[in-house]
Design goal:
about 60 residues
């Protein structure tokens, strides 16, 4: 199963999904699908936007076991 740490890191930073969506310019719906694992292949640009906003590397968020 696909697993990323978006929700975990977002919650640690006290961010709402709405706030992350606004600052990353990624839709709430898409972020929600990524967090749940129902979307599993985000583009490099999407991963860059999310990782920049969360202050973590792409590998820490999307490729961490």
């Amino acid at each position: 199963m696909y697993k990323n740490r978006i929700r975990e890191i977002r919650m640690e930073k006290g961010m709402t999904l709405e706030y992350l969506s606004r600052i990353s310019q990624v839709s709430i719906g898409y972020l929600c699908h990524l967090e749940r694992g129902t979307r599993t292949n985000p583009s490099m640009r999407i991963m860059e936007k999310i990782s920049e906003c969360l202050g973590k590397s792409i590998s820490e968020i999307f490729f961490n076991k």
